[in-house]
Amino acid sequence: MTTQRIGIIMNGVTGRMGTNQHLVRSILAIRAQGGITGPGGVTLMPEPVLVGRNEAKLAKLAEKHGGLAYTTNLAELWKDDRYPIYFDAQTTLRRYEDVKTAIAKGKHVYCEKPVATSSADGFDLYKRAVNAGIKHGVVQDKLWLPGLRKLQYLIDTAFFGEILNVRGDFGYWVFTGEHQPLQRPSWNYRAKEGGGIILDMFCHWRYVIDNLFGNVTSVCALGATHIKKRWDEQGKPYKPDTDDAAYGMFTTDRGIICQFNSSWCTRVRRDDLLTLHVDGTHGSAVAGLRQCWVQHDATTPRPVWNPDIDSPIDYRAGWEQMPTGIAYDNAFKAQWELFLRHVAFEAPFRWDLKEGAKGVQLAELGLKSWKERKWIDVPAK
Fold it and tell me: What is the CATH number of the domain that holds 149?
């Protein structure tokens, strides 16, 4: 058995998502398990180098996790053949230029979404990557959540019969920062810094819908800025100028209607921070991040409308929770392993920069629909 080391430039991992999901629960978790077993007895071992603008944060993060390599000089790493992969988890505004440079320098690219602030830039990155002959991918983590994988199983085994509609409900209350600390960065609510829930979440809904329910063919969306005043990380008040809630409808080429509410201004009274309710002719399911509940046609109760009495039906009791028959790994780690296999062993990987650009495209069309107050067709490309 031989060990093949593969270096990864990890840019922007001092942020919450970059640290927790990509560094600690993905790359370091892969190292802790002894790497990734490949063909011919080869073990692939990732070797990260942390990159960012704040040296103090980098040093603290690197020391906390065993003395990892780090630098603030990204330009030097472009020349270093020990690191053939570039990963980007920076804020959206900084991503396009650094990913473009990484492609030009011949690095394989894996990055967070949105891949850019415009679909033109997103598709440009895809074309550059294809022309350069490098391998490329975009994080589409929700596809590997246990709840959605259970939902995929139901689809694959024809549990639903004909799928009729999907209702997605996502969000939670993000504190304004006035009386309690905010739990999302303040840039999320500033347009000039790449904020807005449509740009953020429609990228997710694009790949969720495309992969589970058919390619998106049209969109009708309404955005809102519900909270008119917030406080930043330094406690300074500011006026949000971009959407903090979005209400979208999407059609697919399978004739399925999908509705997704996305909000940072809602208090949760549902099974999870994200739930997908899928109705079909033979049965229905509600999937959260980790669990999934089902109701077959044969066990569906017969409701009768009568608002003058308390309902005699316990509607939740009629749903059965699907068992967890296998151990599901962290969703981010699962996709990281697939991408590393793609780079090192030529394994297939279909979630490329084009898929990322399509997510930005849907966000743009959603914003256009909101502005023009009408349905917008989504190009088939």
Answer: 3.30.360.10
Cα–Cα distances in angstroms (integers) from residue 142 to residues 22, 24, 250, 293, in the given order:
14, 18, 18, 18
* pLDDT tens-digit series, residues 65-107: 999 999 999 999 999 999 999 999 998 999 999 999 999 999 9
> pLDDT tens across 197-217, in order?
999 999 999 999 999 999 999
Handedness of CA 13, 18, 19, 23 (dihedral sign): negative
| Tally of domains within the chain | 2
pLDDT grade for 299, boundaries at 50, 70 and 90: very high
pLDDT at 381 over 90: no
State the pairing for strand pair 85-88/2-11: parallel
Q: Provide the domain limits for residue 70.
A: 2-140+331-348
Q: Does a structural domain hold residue 299?
A: yes
| DSSP-H helix ranges across the chain | 16-17, 28-32, 55-64, 74-78, 92-104, 119-132, 146-156, 197-212, 331-345, 353-372
Pairwise CA distance, residues 326 & 86, whole Å: 32
Residues 10 and 116 grouped into a single domain = yes
Do 176 and 229 meet the contact criterion of CB atoms below 8 Å apart?
yes
Tell me the residue type at 375.
W
Cα-Cα-Cα-Cα torsion 72, 78, 79, 80, nearest 10 degrees, comes to 70
Tokens 């922007």 belong to which residue? 12
pLDDT digits (tens, 9 = 90+) for 158-183: 999 999 999 999 999 999 999 999 99
Identify whether the C-beta of residue 93 lies closer than 8 Å to the C-beta of residue 194.
yes
At residue 136, does pLDDT exceed 90?
Answer: yes
Tell me: do 321 and 183 sit in the same domain: yes
80 contacts 102 by C-beta, under 8 angstroms: no
Q: Is residue 259 part of a domain?
A: yes
Please indicate, yes or no, whether residues 286 and 342 belong to a single structural domain of this protein. no
Same domain, yes or no, for 295 and 335? Answer: no
Predicted local distance difference test score (pLDDT) of residue 325:
83
Are 312 and 335 part of one and the same domain? no
